[in-house]
């Protein structure tokens, strides 16, 4: 597909990093109704000085070219089920037209963005396993 030219290694790395950051901060367990004094600890992993930070991830995404950022957004929409693979070209156009503010902030507002990107690649490339092979 000519419109989709993101480097597979870059996308694979981005998905790994998104999963690492989102595991630490985005998926907080809802109030379980338990007694907080009896709970063992926080429901999410804690950030360490040596960890990839959200700011580094935002910089990585926002440093991409505008067309690459649009590809990420359209890919997320595809993985989320908002569009079908045959509508990817239209999704790219729409992502570029709707671009306001930081793409990273938009993507990171979706707690399952890494899963959506992986599913989007799978649907767009008809069953590729990017995360295993690093290739489309």
UniProtKB/TrEMBL annotation:
Acidic residues biased stretches: 37-50
Protein's name in the database: DUF3775 domain-containing protein
Region (Disordered): 27-50
Organism domain of life: Bacteria
InterPro entries referenced in this protein's UniProt entry, alphabetically: DUF3775
């Amino acid at each position: 597909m000519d419109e989709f030219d993101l480097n597979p290694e870059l996308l694979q790395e981005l998905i790994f990093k998104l999963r690492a950051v989102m595991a630490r901060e985005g998926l907080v367990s809802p109030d379980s109704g338990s007694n907080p004094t009896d709970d063992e600890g926080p429901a999410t992993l804690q950030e360490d000085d040596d960890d990839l930070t959200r700011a580094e991830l935002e910089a990585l995404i926002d440093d991409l070219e505008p067309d690459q950022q649009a590809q990420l957004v359209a890919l997320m929409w595809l993985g989320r089920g908002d569009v079908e693979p045959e509508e990817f070209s239209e999704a790219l156009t729409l992502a570029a037209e709707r671009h306001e503010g930081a793409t990273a902030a938009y993507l990171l507002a979706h707690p399952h963005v890494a899963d959506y990107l992986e599913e989007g690649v799978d649907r767009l490339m008809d069953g590729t396993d990017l995360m295993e092979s690093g290739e489309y």
